């Protein structure tokens, strides 16, 4: 498994933040030094980890150059976090200088030696923030919900990945498509699984063997400032995310 991984899909509501926080916490629980980076202006990753994102130094100040990255990173019980908030929504207009695609990569270079893994939560868009995540990462995970609409726009992700590979990061790979909110007993879920396999082929990747089962605890955990693993360790999604990490760590 690559050291820096971005969790990405321009479709909202597919479980990017849940996946990111669960992987961060699972790695932390196993003794790895892990950093979570929130590149979504909604700030959901930091909020879900229990941070006061409106009164914190954030990735926005880091990318702007007004705060050193080491000062913006916050240690939590779930793992270290570089939070975000709504100020980051100006990135597309504000970060317009040449080389803006490398802003995050340049900052992570200053701290990555302190971590075994860095997990980046991306916004539900294909914009300069997403490009920064792709340029910084060795690999991507693409979460999807078992809904037909969540499969739309995959060609846009493919085009963005190919552009980043061509101009900025030729070694970027897709670890796999992750199906969230999965219920194998539902016909639609099984149909989406088949379609996901076709999409995976187009992205030169796979549908990950582990599927994250649906449960109310996924929605409850962020309100308590916890991941699914810390909030409900015996739940199906908690077991699934641990199995997902096993699967990812075993990848060549």
Descriptive report:
With 252 residues, the chain is an alpha/beta fold. The chain is built from twelve helices and seven strands. The chain has helices spanning 16-29, 44-48, 59-64, 69-72, 91-94, 103-108, 128-136, 154-167, 187-202, 217-220, 228-231, 236-249, and strands at residues 4-7, 34-38, 74-76, 79-82, 117-121, 139-144, 173-179. Strands 3-4-2-5-1-6-7 form a seven-stranded mixed sheet, sandwiched between helices. Helix 8 links the parallel strand 6 (139-144) and strand 7. Helix 1 (16-29) crosses helix 12. The radius of gyration is 17 Å and the shape is globular. The model has no long low-confidence stretch (mean pLDDT 94).
Distance between the termini: 7 Å
User: Main sheet, how many strands, which sense, barrel?
Assistant: 7 strands, mixed
Strand content: 5-15%
Shape, principal axes of CA atoms: globular
Strand tally, please? Answer: 7
**How are the strands of the largest sheet arranged?**
3-4-2-5-1-6-7
Write the layout of secondary structure elements.
Blueprint: E1 4-7, H1 16-29, E2 34-38, H2 44-48, H3 59-64, H4 69-72, E3 74-76, E4 79-82, H5 91-94, H6 103-108, E5 117-121, H7 128-136, E6 139-144, H8 154-167, E7 173-179, H9 187-202, H10 217-220, H11 228-231, H12 236-249
Concise summary:
This protein is α/β, with parallel strands linked by helices. The protein is built from 12 helices and 7 strands.
